[in-house]
């Protein structure tokens, strides 16, 4: 039965900013949320960790980012967390990792996969992650790769850092007000990227305002935006 959620990100911080609300919301409802981080983001996503007078070892930066990710994932209620440690800036091509993601899909049988959008010229690690996820999905749904093949899950791309640069056009707005405090706490569990805290609070308020207009809700709302890759199948437009 497909009742879980799988999140695949290029760097350890990505899941908190982009889809932390969705993760917390579904975990709260009893949906198993599984997380894969392809890299620690030690090269390009950990600027604060490299600052200071004393030399810093790369392994120390990795350990710091891993600890932050584990703390944030626990706050969000993640059921499983896997670090691939591929390296970043740039994230390397890895057929082995595609197979590994595919095996996770077969093991967890997700109804939905959350990942980066196809286009992001400012960060090609995100583009490669998107491609790896779709390749893994192909492999997971193919009977020739094993009898435990899955029903193809929907893929939702979460909002990138600069939507207008990436051609991101959301067609789903998720209202996350009920779990905003969890997301905010998870964001604060990532002090290495504390420069993003207020930025993503503003993004959540903006998307919440848009969701509130469509749902005719009142009060301060928080939201997240997503773009579905495959069409949804519905029995009717009105029930």
UniProtKB/TrEMBL annotation:
Entry-linked SUPFAM superfamilies: LmbE-like (SSF102588)
The organism's place on the tree of life at top rank: Bacteria
MF annotations from Gene Ontology: hydrolase activity, acting on carbon-nitrogen (but not peptide) bonds, in linear amides
PANTHER family linked: BLR3841 PROTEIN (PTHR12993:SF29), N-ACETYLGLUCOSAMINYL-PHOSPHATIDYLINOSITOL DE-N-ACETYLASE-RELATED (PTHR12993)
Record protein name field: PIG-L domain-containing protein
Organism: Bordetella genomosp. 4
């Amino acid at each position: 039965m497909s009742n879980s959620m799988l999140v695949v990100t290029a760097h350890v911080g990505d899941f908190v900013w982009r889809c932390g609300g969705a993760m917390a919301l579904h975990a709260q409802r009893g949906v198993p949320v599984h997380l894969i981080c392809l890299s620690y983001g030690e090269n390009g996503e950990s600027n604060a960790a490299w600052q200071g007078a004393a030399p810093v070892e790369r392994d120390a930066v990795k350990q710091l980012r891993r600890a932050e990710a584990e703390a944030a994932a626990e706050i969000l209620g993640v059921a499983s967390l896997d670090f691939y440690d591929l390296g970043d800036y740039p994230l390397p091509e890895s057929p082995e990792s595609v197979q590994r993601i595919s095996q996770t899909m077969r093991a967890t049988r997700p109804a939905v996969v959350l990942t980066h959008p196809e286009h992001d010229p400012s960060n090609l690690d995100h583009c490669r992650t998107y491609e790896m996820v779709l390749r893994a999905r192909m492999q997971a749904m193919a009977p020739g790769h094993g009898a435990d093949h899955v029903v193809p899950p929907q893929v939702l791309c979460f909002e990138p850092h600069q939507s207008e640069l990436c051609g991101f056009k959301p067609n789903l707005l998720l209202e996350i007000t009920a779990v905003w405090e969890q997301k905010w706490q998870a964001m604060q569990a990532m002090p290495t990227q504390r420069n993003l805290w207020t930025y993503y609070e503003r993004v959540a308020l903006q998307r919440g305002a848009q969701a509130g207009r469509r749902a005719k809700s009142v009060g301060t709302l928080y939201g997240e935006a997503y773009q579905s890759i495959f069409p949804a199948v519905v029995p009717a437009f009105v029930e």
